[in-house]
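Support request, please re-run this one:
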Amino acid sequence: MSDTTGTVEPGRARRLVDLTDSAELVASLGLTGQQLATTVTGMERSAQRLGRALVVVVDDRVAQGEQEDSIGPLVTELLEEAGFIVDGTVAVAGETVDIRNALNTAVIGGVDVVITVGGTGVSPRDVTPDATAGVLDRPIPGIAEALRASGLAAGAVDAGVSRGLVGVSGSTLVVNLAGSRAAVRDGMATLTPLVTHVIEQLSGLETA
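Re-run finished. Output below.
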């Protein structure tokens, strides 16, 4: 794949030469040859799957098998609709160590994005943000604030008052969502276009 300077792997050279060796075509598009190569690579990336994802459901009863997980399948469905391959769903209790272990496993496993659901409120058992803070290398507060703002506007109160964090651990984007179905639906709608941008940057494919 191309890097941020528009360098192209040899396997793609022929297709890009076919496009860029015509001065008339390049001029008509208003692009330099390098810009055109980068544009083609970005188009190829958008036609592919966005990457791999993992869902972590933070719920004591689900983790203990006392209640069926109804949120994990919803997150999985929305991720797949957005173009992700979902490796699976993991249910953990609301314990800092359990949450952190699940996140570290996802990061070590090389997933592109891990979505946690639940445990973002202000009760003593809501420790997902606290566990996440210990895993992140670089927080992205703007996305977390966007999730809160859009959730509140949509009437998902738990999203509006969520302490959830968003950030990068290694090359994995970590996102905390509140636990209601409304918060998940609104959060994923807000998140999807932003995730694409972040993953491209983490993959060295940022074309801006």
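Residues 1-47 have pLDDT under 50 and may be disordered. Residues 10-47 form one domain.
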